[in-house]
Amino acid sequence: MSATTPDGRLGRVAVVGAGLAGSLLAVLLGRRGFAVDVFERRGDPRAGGEAEGRSINLGISARGIRALRAVGLWDGMAPSLVPMRGRVIHQPGAPLRFQPYGTRPEEILHSIRRNELNAVLVDRAEKEPAVRFHFGWRGSELDRDGGRLTLTKPGTGERRTVEADLIIGADGAFSEVRQLMHRGLPVNYRQDFLDWGYRELTIRSNPDGSARTPIEALHVWPSRRGLVVAHPNTDNSLTCTVLLPHHDDPQRPDQPSFDSLTTEAAVASFFATEFGDLPELVPDLADQYFAHPVSQLVTIRTAPWHHRDRVVLVGDACHAIYPFYGQGMNSAFEDCLVLDDCLARYGVSETALATYQQSRKPHTDVLADLATDNFIELRDRVRNPLHMLRAQADLALHRLAPQLWQPLYRMVSHTAIPYADALRRAQRQDRLLTWGAAAATVGTALVARAAWRRRRG
Amino acid sequence: MSATTPDGRLGRVAVVGAGLAGSLLAVLLGRRGFAVDVFERRGDPRAGGEAEGRSINLGISARGIRALRAVGLWDGMAPSLVPMRGRVIHQPGAPLRFQPYGTRPEEILHSIRRNELNAVLVDRAEKEPAVRFHFGWRGSELDRDGGRLTLTKPGTGERRTVEADLIIGADGAFSEVRQLMHRGLPVNYRQDFLDWGYRELTIRSNPDGSARTPIEALHVWPSRRGLVVAHPNTDNSLTCTVLLPHHDDPQRPDQPSFDSLTTEAAVASFFATEFGDLPELVPDLADQYFAHPVSQLVTIRTAPWHHRDRVVLVGDACHAIYPFYGQGMNSAFEDCLVLDDCLARYGVSETALATYQQSRKPHTDVLADLATDNFIELRDRVRNPLHMLRAQADLALHRLAPQLWQPLYRMVSHTAIPYADALRRAQRQDRLLTWGAAAATVGTALVARAAWRRRRG
Ligand SMILES: Cc1cc2nc3c(=O)[nH]c(=O)nc-3n(C[C@H](O)[C@H](O)[C@H](O)COP(=O)(O)OP(=O)(O)OC[C@H]3O[C@@H](n4cnc5c(N)ncnc54)[C@H](O)[C@@H]3O)c2cc1C
Ligand SMILES: Cc1cc2nc3c(=O)[nH]c(=O)nc-3n(C[C@H](O)[C@H](O)[C@H](O)COP(=O)(O)OP(=O)(O)OC[C@H]3O[C@@H](n4cnc5c(N)ncnc54)[C@H](O)[C@@H]3O)c2cc1C
């Protein structure tokens, strides 16, 4: 019923992009009874092969788990996952420090290979009788009012045009559907490239198959001049993301960049001074470093997310963010649940798409800011004792009053509290803590004064 | 010397756009000895004819005057100008209120027809022997590394390609040079369309040629539900800009929009309630209203402003702003002076273009924010007595200590203090005023307490 158009036909949906959001959406909409065609520029993820510049593995947290559960997938997935129970901080000359993520056993993240997750989702989607995947087809023209999408087969000149009641752009940060949908219209759009980029490195397992460093954690090598983060894999290897500025800054001659680290010697000496044990963990560090490309990180903000009742965007296509909160896929999955729900409630209509945007955009806007801030947090603050104290106070208060006091990180990663609500609540807690500190100070002063008066009087 | 390339040739510059910035730049660079070709999509402004959606007249203030003086133009221009000595505020049922712009006779703005100013600049530029204008040619392809620009003649299929040492995009807010220069590169870019747009109306002069309302002022009709601003013309007419939301907002059913004001009756009744004397001043208001198109307002922020040593942007092409501070052209002219200066100092080089961007962008970024804030100021605050009091305090303090205390509006409009410096200074003054008020409060409390003690004691 919900999958029919106003005139009673079965609704036809064309999804562009069979990435994480596109393939989850295919499951959801197929299950609702829509006829779903998914067009993906690349090959079938089940054929293997990693795509460059999209990170090899990802951290999945409460929101993502909730979405996978909704399509009956999470429970069988344990073999593909490595639990991450907290952060392990590596600092030159210091022992490893472990910071647990939460206070309860279920408050952990899980690391998974992007490709494996993508394959599981495509498999699941194909179980829906009305879902069909078309790999090797690129969405390249759009009649946004008429609901016609033209696809081309790269390299062959082949083209085809399909008609659909709803066209969904799930085609990632550089979405062509977004560009075609917005062309010539007075839309708001913002892209911010981070002046830092990243290269991937692998910490292999030991010859006996064991892990070289505690495996059930996210590893962080913070430093004033760079940042390395590593996610574990099920084969006991870890994939590192090395973050550095793209270019030299004449104002900071001591800050190396991908531009300036061009010799093996320079790479070796930089990693040895900044990232302590990393050169031991990656013996062929310089080889790997030069073998991998430098990738860009981008934040995309835009509005509107839909065109009338015809075209709509999900995931990175409408809100790509920096990866520093590990929430890109998690929030893309939330989009899918909400869009599915709006289509169920209102059918394929402008109301459905507008309601979807209204329910999601305020939250993904906040998330974009949080992800930007967390870059500073990961790089600078995890080393800072004052900040650590503050984080511990947060956790202690949460232990005392788990319902009343929730650290921001917990709300973002271990609950489904909408991002903007989580931020508001954290800001309220911050104010309380400041007042508390002020009250404590004043209280101490009063006591001191009374004591002094008593002595004098 | 400065106009030669490193190998000693005379530098060739191609300017795309013979608008206000492009034609001023042609004067400056022609005078420096560059061979300058200017390509303009439209016809020669000296042939007359107004372009839609670009406002018929503009307010020129200190920065613009300074630039025109630099090319020997300002002094002969009085016949084209109407001085605006302050704002005249129109409110329903209230007498006209006059707010002077400054404390000194030279602290005024001047209204000028955009087309007339453009014609004067093109005329002046053609006096430079090495400057040539090519009207009816659109910049449409760019080899950004090779310095080759392809032009097409709209409607004819004619094309030509020119080579230049430097290609300058002076092609306005929707700059094609910017898009071609940035294509595929990791650039920062942001466009924000205001959800309010505008339509133009004319207040004609009386049959005897006199003005219907005081002519030497900027007129403002503030209202909670709309905003009208009018600039005077030398023929005693005024051109009004009527600002309203584009679309209806379900949350504010009492707020009309361009979408909803679709009948003569609705227009007449809305203007009569909100804008007091305007219907009398424009007897054919509804006819004019429906005859003119609705235009969009956009803010553009981007970086970088240049590509290596080959391509660079000026004016609206790199920093279009909302018109609410009357500084778009004024700041575009400042760009031209700075770019000319950097080219003189460093020749056509990456250093010259990077220095230009570094000297300008922090200031035009601040200006974009100020222009956004001034929308609220014009619409809501000019009616607010508390705000008026604050503005008067500002002006009074400035009269007392003209060097020490300068209202922000004065620094922006009547000086050439860089915008970001002006904002910093205004923020410092704001803090001083707050402390002053706090000190006064504490002082009063102390005096009161002393008095009370004396009575008691
Ligand atoms: C380094 C890094 C680390 C990250 N870590 C995490 C993490 O720990 N946790 C987390 O939640 N998120 C993380 N993310 C974010 C996460 O990867 C994205 O948010 C997520 O992939 C978005 O899913 P998507 O389906 O919207 O886009 P994508 O996964 O990018 O999928 C888009 C798909 O569309 C296809 N496509 C593109 N254009 C076309 C076209 N014209 N026609 C047909 N197909 C097309 C692409 O080939 C691709 O398959 C990370 C990102 C990066 C870069
Ligand atoms: C309603 C309104 C009121 C305003 N009021 C004021 C004010 O009071 N004071 C003030 O200082 N500013 C004001 N402005 C701003 C001011 O108009 C702009 O800042 C100024 O015009 C910018 O000059 P420019 O030369 O950069 O761009 P434009 O003046 O827009 O000139 C760009 C030129 O490039 C041409 N062009 C475009 N594309 C191509 C191409 N591909 N090939 C060749 N040519 C091309 C266009 O035809 C145009 O002639 C106002 C703006 C508006 C919209």
TrEMBL record, chains A, B:
InterPro entries: FAD-bd, FAD/NAD-bd_sf. Keywords: FAD, Flavoprotein, Membrane, Monooxygenase, NADP, Oxidoreductase, Transmembrane, Transmembrane helix. The chain crosses the membrane at residues 432-452. One of its GO terms (molecular function) is kynurenine 3-monooxygenase activity. Its cofactor is FAD. Pfam families: FAD_binding_3. GO terms for biological process: kynurenine metabolic process. Residues 13-367 form the FAD-binding domain. This is FAD-dependent monooxygenase.
